[in-house]
Amino acid sequence: MHPDLKTVMELQQVDQRVAELTALIDSLPAQIQTMQSKLDDFIRAHEERKKRLAANQKERKDLEGDIKEIQEDIVKHKDQLYQVKTNDQYRAMQKEIEGEQTGIRKIEDQILEKMIEAEDLQRNVEEAAARLEGEKVRVAGEIQQLKDRGQKEAEERERTKARRQELAAALSEATLRLYERIRLGRNGIALAEARGGLCTACNVWLRPQAYNEVRAGGNLLTCENCGRILYYIEPPAEQPDATGQNTETTA
């Protein structure tokens, strides 16, 4: 095997791990923000229910005040019945009183609706209040777990980067330059396994001579199609079965 190939293969693994760790670390702020946003939405919904309940109570109080005013008007108008001088005036006053009494019944129906609504709102407010502290504790714990994980991943990334520097320093300048050029031009993947006569990165057949040279491992060779550095892994030897014969895979 070419003296640099094993180091290049490990360098590729290290670079991929750095990329994975970076992606994980970069995703943490969005995950934390999503958790916090859900908690904030829960709190806002709870506050809106409390406001709606308070508004409901005020509306009921206002309606009850309206009934009280109408009742006072009814009392006043009933007193005035004894002061009217004609039947027409008497009937008109009675009709007005009846209209006021009808108005009271309509307002009482509205109050009943508000009371039913208030029962649902009160239940929702109490349930949300009972859950709120638990939700705060849960979200805070999950966010702290994410932060702790991020810290560990950051520390691992620093160790991995240090290992990368060691590997890069162990390579010849020409090999490192070749590796970096291919890696930057191929989305971070500079190597490809040669297997069964194919480059497994681009699935293009290799020339038989090139494939044999890759298997021999004496030189650093690149795929003529995708340009990646090729390597070959010797497949495991066939294991004999219980009869002492080599096992074979049949179609």
Across the major sheet, the strand order is 3-2-1-4
Radius of gyration over C-alpha positions, nearest whole angstrom: 41 Å
Give unreliable regions as ranges. Answer: none
Number of helices: 4
Q: Biggest sheet, in brief? A: 4 strands, mixed
Query: Can you give the helix content as a percent range?
Result: over 70%
Whole-number total of structural domains: 2
CATH fold group of the largest domain = Helix Hairpins
Q: Identify the quaternary structure here.
A: single chain
Tell me the total number of β-strands. 4
Cα shape: rod-shaped
What top-tier CATH class of the largest domain fits best? Mainly Alpha
Alpha-carbon distance between the two ends: 34 Å
Strand residue percentage: under 5%
Strand pairing plus helix content: what structural class?
A: mainly alpha
Mean pLDDT: 91
Order of H and E elements: HHHEEEHE
CATH architecture of the largest domain: Orthogonal Bundle
Quick structural gist:
The protein contains 4 helices and 4 strands, in the order αααβββαβ. By secondary structure, it is mostly helical.
